[in-house]
Amino acid sequence: MYIIPAIDILDKKVVRLREGDYEQVTSYDVTLDEMIERYQSQGTQFIHVIDLNGAKNDFSNQQWLFDIVRKTDMKVQYGGGVRSIEKVRELIDAGIHRVIVGTQAITNPTFLDDLSKEMCGSNQCSDHVVVAIDVLDEVIKYSGWMESSPIKLMDYVSRCLSLGFYRFLCTDINKDGKLGGAGIELYEKLLDHSPFIKLIASGGVSSMADIEALSKIKVEACVVGKAIYEGHITIEEIKNWNLESLISI
User: Fold this and answer.
1) Given this model, what pLDDT does residue 249 score?
2) Any residues with CB less than 8 A from the CB of 121 and at least 6 apart, and which?
3) Range 72-81 average pLDDT
4) How confident is residue 180, by pLDDT bands cut at 50, 70 and 90?
5) How far apart are CA 47 and CA 78, in angstroms?
6) N or C: fewer beta carbons within 10 Å in the chain?
7) Where are the domains of the chain?
8) What residues act catalytically?
């Protein structure tokens, strides 16, 4: 298991939201360029960037972000307002390594089918498309966690697998932004249902002990954001963990 540092962007500022609430924003005195440089200088290869403007269909950050991505060797996992196959292609063509799809995959019944037909080669779905599942008490939430889907969680995972998508970013909303520990129980249920999915855990990681716990249940990776900014996990610890993970592969 490896750690992916998270960087959330709002109005070109590095921020964190609590439970996805735009009214509960913490801004940090650091730029996206500076954060990427810090991670890259410490040997981190992957970063997770969420464009919170894009999530509201405001792509004013996007060209600025593309310019930064082109200057780095880092692999970027990007999410925020990806609502069309054309947008997926645009992002990949701009140098984004993985594109996260969320709300559109839930609300548009044919989106994943069409994306599978258009984008999936022998490994492209798993390598370049990540299906986001935001979960509150086993209910799938979307549209900034404001709406609830009637689709059962495990049924949705099964449908995605049938279309060739098997990398999932699962956020436990109950845990997100609170530094209260990761949603181990939720991730165990997902992995019990589908042992071969590539699961990226998100939400609540507060310490290296949480990282250890996630590693034991064999998630592929975990996203860590607030714990880094608040000093609970250091970039040096991330570097050492990821190097150890690389050696053990």
Assistant:
1) 44
2) none
3) 92
4) low
5) 9
6) C
7) 2-248
8) 8, 134
